Amino acid sequence: MDELNLRPAARQDRSGVPCLPSSVGLRFNSPSEDGHSLQAEGAALRRQLLEWWERHGRHDIPWKRLPDGRPPAPGEALDPYPVYVAEVMLQQTQLAVVLPYWRRWMERLPVLEALAGADEHDVLLLWQGLGYYARARRLRLGAIQLLEGRAERQSGLWPRTVEGWLALPGIGRSTAGSIVASAFDLPAPILDGNVARVLSRLIAHPGPPKRQQARFWWLSESLLDPQRPRAFNQALMDLGATICTPRRPACGSCPWQDHCAAYAAGDPGRFPVKDTARAVPFQVIGVGVVRDEGGRVLIDQRLPEGLLGGLWEFPGGKQEPGEPIAATIRRELREELAIEVEVGEELITLEHAYSHKRLRFVVHLCRWRSGEPQPLASQQVRWVEPTELASYPFPAANARIIAALQDRIAAG
Ligand code: SF4
Hints:
The chain is built from 14 helices and nine strands. By secondary structure, it is of the alpha+beta class. The protein has two domains: 12-270, Endonuclease III, domain 1; 282-410, Alpha-Beta Complex (Nucleoside Triphosphate Pyrophosphohydrolase). Strands 6-3-8-7 form a four-stranded mixed beta sheet, sandwiched between helices. The protein has a three-stranded antiparallel beta sheet with strand order 5-4-9, with no helix packed on it. The chain has a two-stranded antiparallel ribbon with strand order 1-2. Strand 7 and strand 8 form a beta hairpin. Helix 1 (31-56) crosses helix 10 (213-223) and helix 1 (31-56) crosses helix 11. The protein is globular, with a radius of gyration of 26 Å. The structure holds iron/sulfur cluster (SF4). Iron/sulfur cluster binds at residues 198, 201-202, 243-244, 249, 251, 254, 256-257, 260, 262-263, 268. Residues 198, 201-202, 243-244, 249, 251, 254, 256-257, 260, 262-263, 268 line the site of iron/sulfur cluster.
């Protein structure tokens, strides 16, 4: 029998959210009311979580260890630079995906000065495939800002407060807290998606956590172990990543099972309660892989702003309603590059989902006919040999276009 079913079935309110029996789980209805319950149970929650983490946590994360591979002692500082890089990479991206990128980054840019002095092109190339490229640009700008502000900073090169880190581009409160706790073992709470999920289940919060950020921050801060903040935050993240997972939380292995209101309600998967899903817009993009008589390929560099700012891509744009895709490509290339092309056969069609939209790229091989390419809607345009494409940073979807082009060239 499923362990969750051993609990009495919870009643449900009109919105379908379970109402808990009054004797079960933590009561966190407001910070003032929650305070009483936390005082009574906080110590047990900390102890149980840390005991679980000592045995089952992820202890091999490289930026959480000293250069000789040892774990730091409580209060012992770590080099903030590897932590800073890792925490920015971890925004929107899972640990397993980040690890190889972080290792490659630390080989090429091992210290803050190397990052600050690096060309943006090389930084974007190192980031290629991680997505959300604004993070890479801001990381580089942050390195420059840290070095420039060193003289005025009392703590030297590295800020030791959440406020100090918040002054850097692309650093929000949770990233700042995670860096301060990880690098210096100072008490700073975190509230990323994993942590919000665990806490919303712990208290069976009846609404989306995003709508009550203050309460969740208060909860994360109140639970934080002031003696071992680095270990506690890591334990909380590890619990969310390995036990209290989004779809099938392993409550039977959870150190907080006895305190968890969502578990007591018998349906932890219902938490966190989600906002009503919005329809994600869908667009078709016509893309031209334009080649000249010598076989060179035309690429352009996006403007610096936005999600993919500064990356290179094959030119193209949105299909208008009722417009044939070949006409879309011809029109876009005329409008954005001032060139005329002959649209040839389809090279590849692929779909790519962002959090806010879904795109279908219909890619055609094109022959350049006339007009000197001009960057009318980009930073610059360039004719390159197909073998040179690998030395330019492209968004993930374009990497598949390059692979299809190389296959087509290899096949003659
Ligand atoms: S008991 Fe289950 S739902 Fe509650 S915190 Fe643990 S894993 Fe998450």
